[in-house]
Design goal:
Distance between the termini: 14 Å
Number of helices: 3
Strand order of the largest sheet: 6-3-7
Number of strands: 7
Oligomer: single chain
Shape: rod-shaped
Structural class: alpha+beta
Length: about 140
């Protein structure tokens, strides 16, 4: 519930305002980009597991029953290394994609609600700002 306005910013009850002491601009990834990364990583990981399983089962004699445990061990062992390497290149590829990024600019002495400031900069107590408590 909005209680009042301070410096033309709507405040909730007992909400703080942050005045940024320096100009600050950061680039933040939007949540939709994280979701797209998670889905694309899962696709890459699943294809890797399928390919490794297929190749190892074809390599090890598939007609023997006891090879199932051996194959599973091979898959688990090899996949750990390949997933680390694939994840590294997956992250580097996503770092080059500009889609889903937001440039956040806050000018010096611009009043911003503290909750918004903390969310944008992912901080709990920042040395970049001083906080004034809204008066009741």
């Amino acid at each position: 519930m909005v209680e009042k306005k301070k410096n033309n910013i709507e405040l909730e009850q007992d909400e703080h305002i942050v005045f940024v002491e320096t100009d600050k601009a950061i680039v933040r990834d939007r949540p939709i980009k994280s979701l797209a990364k998670a889905i694309s990583w899962r696709i890459v990981g699943s294809l890797d597991t399928f390919l490794l399983s297929y190749l190892l089962i074809r390599f090890i004699q598939p007609e023997a029953e006891h090879t199932a445990v051996k194959t599973a061990g091979w898959i688990a062992s090899v996949e750990v290394g390949t997933k680390i390497i694939l994840y590294y290149f997956h992250e580097r590829a996503w770092a080059m994609i500009r889609w889903g990024r937001v440039l956040v600019r806050i000018r010096r002495n611009t009043p911003v609600p503290k909750k918004m400031f903390n969310k944008m900069f992912q901080v709990k107590n920042s040395k970049l700002a001083f906080v004034t408590k809204s008066k009741k």
